Amino acid sequence: MPFEVLVSAFVTLVVVVDPLGLVPTFIALTEGLPAAARRQVALRACLIATAILAGAVLIGAWLLNSLGIGLPAFRIAGGLLLFSIASEMVFGVRIERQARQAEQAIEEHVRNVAAFPLAIPMIAGPGAITACVLLAGRAGTSLPAYAGLLAVIVAVLVLTLAVFLFASRVARLIGVTGNIVISRLLGVLLASLAVQFVIDGVRAVWS
Known about the structure:
By secondary structure, the protein is an all-alpha fold. It is built from 9 helices and no strands. Helix 1 (about 5-15) runs antiparallel to helix 7 (about 125-140) and helix 3 (about 35-65) packs antiparallel against helix 8. The longest helix is centred in the C-terminal third of the chain and has 40 residues, at about 165-205. The protein is globular, with a radius of gyration of 17 Å. The two termini are about 25 Å apart.
């Protein structure tokens, strides 16, 4: 798998998952829990999300074929979905929605909190799943390509886990303003990637 494709996949998933943007949600969901429980929540959420995203890479194309959906059509639809998420990031809508979901789940058990809303839909949400299917289609069908993409998913989730484990320090370091600025910048980058997915889909249709 070409190095530039791996870099593109890593950047795409980091932007979609947005580990820094999840810090306030993680802190809110684990408020009042002992340090060991917070680590357990972080690890469990990242493991669940890894399994979901890896499954999207491995069986996403097969599922599309079973449903009679062509990859170009999925690229266009997925690009539009990612663009919608990017617009929410740029205008701050995503942060507000994450805050509301965190408030709704604050009373849940530690195990449930790790699965919902952290793993689903915060980390492995529709955008991340769509991105994984699209990246798998771009990477090809060779075993090294799949292995490289799975390695990228693991790397992104390890980064997310590290951010969760140091959530309090990260929150103090970037502050509210820093989090907003980073979210806006990542939103613009994701919008560009989403448009590229749409362009690839349209080219595939007309080729």
